[in-house]
Amino acid sequence: MLCAVYKTRRKEGMYLYVPGKDKFEQVPEPLLKQFGQPQLVMLLPLGKRGELAGVDKTVLEKALSEQGFYLQMPPKQENWLAEHRQSLGASARSEDKK
Questions:
Q1: Taking a C-beta distance cutoff of 8 angstroms, is the pair 10, 16 a contact?
Q2: Mean pLDDT throughout 61-85?
Q3: Smallest Cα–Cα separation from 37: which of 68, 10, 59?
């Protein structure tokens, strides 16, 4: 299966996978509206790939065959300062101590 990967300018790290170039028919209209103008990143032959970065290949293939698309969300941003403050018993935010 040939998969097309698109990115959005609206949110870094968010990608939309569809089962072919410009195959957006199965993508819900509200999602496309929020995603904005899709920018093609690459065409990806899934059959020849062993692993994919950031996406479980079996989950991707199942979503493409059942839903017609797969939306990869950006990884959650960690706040190391807040975690460190909490480990010391302080508030996660410095403004909270006032």
A1: no
A2: 84
A3: 10
Query: Cα-flanking dihedrals φ and ψ of residue 26, to 5°?
Result: -90, -10
CA atoms within 13 A on the CB side of 37: 2
41 is in which domain, residue-wise?
A: 2-97
Q: For residue 63, give the CATH number of its domain.
A: 3.10.510.20
How many domains, in total, are found in the chain?
1
pLDDT tens-place string over residues 37-59: 999 999 988 887 777 777 888 89
How far apart CA 18 and CA 4 sit, in angstroms, is 5
Considering the entire predicted model, what is its pTM?
A: 0.74
Query: Do 38 and 23 contact (CB within 8 A), yes or no?
Result: no
C-alpha span between 15 and 95 (Å, rounded):
35
Distance (Å) of CA 78 to CA 1, 11, 15, 82, 83:
35, 16, 20, 9, 9
